[in-house]
Amino acid sequence: MEFRNWLKEKMNEREINATALAEAIKENQPTIQRILSGETKNPRLKIIKKLEDYFSENITHIKKSDPDDITINKYVDVTGSMGVGILLRDQPGQITRFSVNEEWLNKNVPFNTGKQNLAIVTGFGDSMRGMFNSGDPLLVDTGVKSLDYDGVYFFRVGSEGFIKRLQRIPGDGIRAISTNKEYESWTITKEMDFEVFGRVLKVWNSEDF
Questions:
Q1: I want to staple 22 with a disulfide (CB 3.0 to 4.6 A). Which of 29, 46, 70, 101 is the partner?
Q2: How many domains does the chain have?
Q3: Do 206 and 135 contact (CB within 8 A), yes or no?
C-alpha cells in the first residue's frame, strides 16, 4: 500500500480532513496535502512520528517502501512439508512476502524464468536441516515445471507436498533426498502422480541466538 493511500484510509476512519489533521499534529495543511496528492512520496521522519502518535500505529515500514521495489509473494497458501510430507495450508507464521530491488535480484538470483514467477515458500519440519531450518524462507522459481536437471525442488506426489533434493536415476526414477540423514531417501516412479511446483533458487539457514 502506498503511503498516501494508507493516510487517506486512516483519515476516513477518523472522519478528518487535511486541515484538521494538520492542526492536530501541528503541521502546515499544504504539507499534508502534498502527501495525499502523491507529490511527497517519502515524508520526513518528523512527520512520520507525528502521524504514528496521532493514529497510534507504527507506520515507519510504509514510509520506507520504495515504489521501485519488487514484491515477491508467498506461493499461494501452501507450505511444503519438510517432514512427513503432509501438504500444509494456512499455517501460522508464514513469511508472506519479500521486497527487493532490481539490483539485489540481478546479483543474487541472476538465473530465473522471470521475476513474475518468483515466490516465497516457508518450509516446516526438519528433514532438510543442514540446508535450511523449519520456518526459513525459500525463494522458488515457479516457472520451472519439469525436472530438467538435479536440484532442490518444491513438488507434490499425490496430495502431499515436499521440498527435497531430486536426483534422476536412469531406469529407476527420481530419488527424493533429505539433507537430514535421519530421513531415508525414496523413489518417485512413473506410476506416481508427480508434479513440480518450482525449483528452489535460494534458501536462508537461520540460527537462534
A1: 29
A2: 2
A3: yes
| CB 136 within 8 Å of CB 152 | no
Residue written as grid cell 513469511: 95
E-state strands within the chain = 70-73, 78-79, 88-89, 97-100, 118-122, 137-141, 151-157, 160-169, 173-177, 186-188, 194-203
Q: Which domain holds residue 53?
A: 3-63
* Helix (H/G/I), strand (E/B), else coil: 61: helix
pLDDT of the chain, 209 residues: tens digit per residue: 577 888 888 898 888 999 999 999 999 999 999 888 888 877 888 888 899 899 888 775 565 555 567 888 888 755 555 554 456 544 546 788 888 888 899 999 999 999 989 999 988 788 899 999 888 999 999 999 999 999 999 999 988 889 999 999 988 899 999 999 999 999 999 999 999 999 999 999 988 88
In a shared domain, residues 100 and 120 = yes
